[in-house]
Specification:
Layout lengths: L22 H39 L7 H7 L3 H14 L4 H11 L2 H4 L3 H4 L5 H7 L5 H5 L9 E5 L2 E5 L1 E7 L9 H14 L6 E7 L3 E3 L7 E2 L2 H11 L11 H9 L6 E6 L6 H11 L5 E6 L5 H11 L3 E4 L5
Parallel strand pairs: 3-4, 3-7, 7-8, 8-9
Antiparallel strand pairs: 1-2, 4-5, 4-6
């Protein structure tokens, strides 16, 4: 007999019985298989998404680029469309004729705007040269309502002046509060402006310690129905107060553009005679006749006569104060 302990294993027979697999090993194997399966699935999903994205990019911007061009052309306007759009936009905010006129006058050279009535009526004055060169009528260029009406006129305290632009420098100092002077001045100024032809313009500056324009309007006012009504209302609000210092008012009038054709200068008191030298010097380059009026008192008569004679204006004394 053969010894079981020394007997060799027969072919086809297991040499040793298999050991049992623990639960932990089974769990590790299951997690490994699940991880591999998840990675394969994720890889497949990413491949599909990549293919879809590539197709979308190719459809929108790929190829010969023709599919992307409509979006660009939709955002860009042609030159004709842009010009049409700009013209429609400008037509909404188009300024009125008065604004265009004031802008044109502001851009015009002083050599054209500063032509005064004195220069215009001279036989060999600048107007002849302007007409020869096609310059045209200055009064019509300034006022769109003139319609070629020609030279206008004004009257203040009976003093006549010719032109299309008239400036008033009027005394409203404290002494004007005596004997009805302020009432007489209000009435005379209102009557002067109301009698103006519609195609002329006016500018009123009041002075005492300081100077200020009538109604705080620092530009020419057309003597049409609207302008005259506005002036009459503003004149009723004038009140006398302060000393007699006319120089700031003259500075304001000399600075306005276009320059006036004539200036009315009225006072009921006396002032520094040195002011006459300044006025005469300022008036020399561009002569403007200054029509001087002493009202109720002749204390400034000497200096007023000098200003009038040096500027080509007139001098008048008014002794009445009743409107």
């Amino acid at each position: 007999m053969t010894d079981p302990t020394t007997q060799s294993a027969m072919p086809g027979q297991d040499s040793a019985p298999s050991e049992p697999v623990s639960f932990a090993d089974k769990l590790r194997r299951w997690f490994l298989r699940a991880s591999i399966a998840g990675m394969v699935l994720s890889l497949g999903v990413h491949i599909v998404l990549f293919i879809i994205a590539a197709l979308v990019v190719t459809a929108v911007g790929g190829g010969d680029g023709q599919s992307a061009r409509p979006a660009i052309e939709f955002a860009v306007m042609s030159q004709s469309q842009l010009d049409s759009f700009q013209s429609e936009e400008l037509s909404v905010d188009e300024p009125n004729s008065q604004e265009l006129l004031e802008q044109s006058l502001a851009d015009a050279p002083d050599s054209l705007l500063d032509i005064t009535l004195t220069e215009m009526i001279q036989p060999e004055g600048r107007l002849d040269a302007d007409i020869a060169s096609g310059g045209g009528d200055l009064s019509s260029a300034h006022n769109p309502n003139s319609s070629g009406a020609g030279i206008g006129a004004a009257s203040f305290f009976g003093i006549e002046a010719r032109g299309n632009r008239f400036a008033y420098i009027v005394d409203v100092s404290g002494s004007m509060d005596r004997g009805g002077r302020i009432d007489a001045m209000r009435a005379e100024l209102s009557e002067s402006i109301s009698a103006m032809p519609d195609h002329v313009s006016f500018f009123v500056v009041l002075y005492a310690d300081t100077a200020y324009p009538l109604g705080d309007r620092r530009k020419w006012t057309d003597a049409n129905r609207v302008g005259k009504r506005w002036a009459r209302t503003a004149i009723t609000k004038l009140a006398p107060l302060g000393a007699t210092k006319p120089m700031p008012a003259f500075e304001m009038v000399y600075d306005i553009r276009p320059r006036p054709d004539a200036i009315y200068f009225m006072t009921d008191g006396e002032f520094d005679e040195g002011i006459a030298e300044i006025i005469i010097r300022r008036n020399k380059d561009r002569p403007i006749p200054v029509h001087c009026i002493t009202f109720m008192t002749r204390s400034a008569e000497t200096v007023m006569k000098r200003i009038a004679s040096s500027t080509g204006g007139t001098y008048t004394h008014i002794s009445r104060s009743t409107p």
